[in-house]
Amino acid sequence: MAHPLKPALPAAIEHVIDVVTKEVPAYSGPDERVAATLRAGVGMALARLVDLMGTDEPALTESAALYERIGAGEYRAGRGLADLLSAYQIGARAAWQSLSRAGVAAGVGPKDVSQLAEAVFAYIDQLSAASIAGYTQAQVADAGRREALRSELVERLLAGEAGSEGVATLAAEVHWPLPTTAMVVVPRGEVLPPALPGALVGRTSQGAVALVAGPITPGLHSWLQAATPEVAVGLPVPLAEAARSLAQARGLVSLPAGGSLQAGDHLADLLVRADPALGRALRDQVLAPFAGLPESRRDPLLATLRSWLLHAGNRADVGRELHVHPQTVSYRMDRVRDLLGAGLDDPRRRWELLLALMIQQAEPEPPPG
C-alpha cells in the first residue's frame, strides 16, 4: 500500500494540520515555534506511517525522540497533555480520512482500507505514549531542579542573605514570595509532614527545614496541632534572622513534651538550654551541696526540692505530685535544709535553685563530686 499512498502525503499533511489548528485552540495561535513543531511532527508521522505499510518494522525508532521532545516541550510551555493527546486523536482521524480517500482513488480494496484505519490509530497510540514519556521525564527533571533551587534558597536565607539579589531571583523562580517575618519548622523525627501550608521546604546540610511566613495564623495553629509527623516551630523573626528561629526550633526537638511544639509555648525551656555550657556551670555550682550523696538519696531530694519550689512550699501539693505522704515531704525538706542552710530562705537563691533544677531536668547528669 505504501506506493499508491506516497503521492498523497503532501495533501494529507496539509489536511491534518488544517484540521488540528481549527479544532485544538492551543495549536491555532500565531506562535511560529508551535506551528513548526506541528508541521515537523505531522510530516514525520505520516511519512513513517506510509513507509511501515506492509512491513514488520517497529513503528518508532529514531523518531521516538521527536515525540518525546514534543511532550517535554508541552510541559516546559506550561501546557497539560490533554491538548496534545487531543491533537493526536483529531490528527489521526484527519489522516485516516485523507489517506483512505487517496487509497480508494488509487484502487485500493476495502480490506486494505480497513487495515489502514487500524494502522493509523495503533500508530497514533504509540506516538501518544512517546510524548507522554517525554512529558513525564521533563516533569520529573523539573521537580528535581525546583527542589534543588528551594534547598539553595533555604540555605541562603538561613545564612542571612535575605536582602541579596540572588535570593530574590531564587524566590521568584520557585514562586515563594519573600515574607517580612518567618518561622522555621523542623521535624521532631526524620521527616516533615507533607503539604505544610505556605512553606518553603528544603533539604539542608542539617536535614529537612521549612520556612513559613509569620506570625502563626489560627489556621496554621490548627494544622500544627494535628501535624503528623510531629514538628517543632521557632519564633517568628525578621527573615534575615531565620537562623535564630532555626536554633529555637532545634532546641524544642529534644524536649520531653509530646506532640508538635511551638517556641512561644516553651520560652523558659529554651532559655535554660540557650547556653548549655553556662547552664551546666550554674547547675554544678548551685547543686554542689548534693554532689556527695549517693544517687538513691540525691534524686528523691532534688525531685522534692523542685516540686516544693514550684508549689511554693505546699506539702500537700508536693505529696500529690510525687505520690508520697506530706510527712515524707517534710522529712526530705529537712534533709534539704541541712544541705542548703539559710540559702533556702533567700528568694534569689530559691530562683537559682529552680533554674538549676530545670537545667538538671533538661540534662540529667549528677553534679560533679
Q: Helix segment count?
A: 15
Largest sheet: 6 strands, mixed
Fraction in beta strands: 5-15%
CATH domain fold name of the largest domain:
Globin-like
What is the string of helix and strand elements?
HHHHHHHEEEHEEHEHHHHHH
Structural class: alpha+beta
* Large-scale geometry: rod-shaped
The average pLDDT is 83
Low-confidence stretches: none
Helix content: 55-70%
Strand count: 6
Overall tally of structural domains = 3
Folded structure, characterized:
By secondary structure, this protein is an alpha+beta fold. The protein has three domains: 2-142, Globin-like (Orthogonal Bundle), CATH 1.10.490; 179-273, no CATH class; 276-362, PucR C-terminal helix-turn-helix domain (Arc Repressor Mutant, subunit A), CATH 1.10.10. The chain is 63% helix and 7% strand. The protein is built from 15 helices and six strands. Strands 1, 2, 3, 4, 5 and 6 form a six-stranded mixed sheet that branches. Helix 5 packs antiparallel against helix 6 and helix 12 (295-310) crosses helix 13. It is rod-shaped.
In short:
By secondary structure, the chain is an alpha+beta fold.
Produce the secondary structure layout.
Blueprint: H1 2-5, H2 9-23, H3 32-52, H4 63-76, H5 81-105, H6 110-158, H7 165-173, E1 181-187, E2 199-204, E3 207-213, H8 218-226, E4 231-233, E5 237-238, H9 242-253, E6 261-262, H10 267-273, H11 276-286, H12 295-310, H13 315-322, H14 326-340, H15 347-362
Parallel strand pairs: 4-6
Antiparallel strand pairs: 1-3, 1-4, 1-5, 2-3
